[in-house]
């Protein structure tokens, strides 16, 4: 790679990062419907042609922003779980980390509100499956195999718990009271405890 080629590659990456950064900020502040391409390119200080070089349009940019947000949440969940040794503690720490991360206003707006509406439920769900939901399913599978959880089919259980966490995160983000996280966690952890083997 020549110095000139490397410089162009770095510039393209800077442009892409600026579009993702400003797109995320604007989508979080105004919602998907409230943001136009002209606002995104002006905020990123690039041309519409530069945007179309990296993304097919606003939906494609939004999807890339959503994937970035979901990846950050999945990383937070994995880090919280990996900090524990006991598999049950890993599950509970990961679930709490998901609820905590999902209450951030930009995460809530992009991942939980606009994500399903913009991309459609099926596409949004498949992206969720690739991140946090996959980790949840793997953790539950291990706990069932180890006898920590009562024997039961894991896929429906994972979907039920994931749905409960998404709903709880939406409620928390709208409540505005930081103390509500403890109340939600008390209810959710009680649900988890009820699944344990005697």
Attribute tags:
single chain; 2 domains; Tetracycline Repressor, domain 2; Arc Repressor Mutant, subunit A; 198 residues; mainly alpha
Count of DSSP-assigned helices: 9
**Element-level helix/strand string:** HHHHHHHHH
Task: Return the domain count.
Answer: 2
Low-confidence stretches: none
Shape: elongated
Could you outline the blueprint of secondary structure elements for this entry?
Blueprint: H1 3-30, H2 37-44, H3 48-54, H4 58-82, H5 87-102, H6 105-119, H7 121-145, H8 154-175, H9 180-194
Helix pairs in contact: 1-2, 1-4, 1-6, 4-5, 4-6, 4-7, 5-7, 5-8, 5-9, 6-7, 6-8, 7-8, 8-9
Could you give a short description of this structure?
This protein is mostly helical and 198 residues long. The chain is built from nine helices and no strands. Helix 1 packs across helix 4, helix 4 packs across helix 6 and helix 7 packs across helix 8.
Q: What can you see in these coordinates?
A:
The protein has two domains: 1-55, Arc Repressor Mutant, subunit A (Orthogonal Bundle), CATH 1.10.10.60; 57-194, Tetracycline Repressor, domain 2, CATH 1.10.357. Helix 4 crosses helix 6 and helix 5 (87-102) runs parallel beside helix 8 (154-175). The protein is built from nine helices and no strands. Helix content is 81%, strand content 0%. The N and C termini lie far apart (62 Å). The relative contact order is 0.10. The longest helix has 28 residues, at 3-30. It has 198 residues and is mainly α.
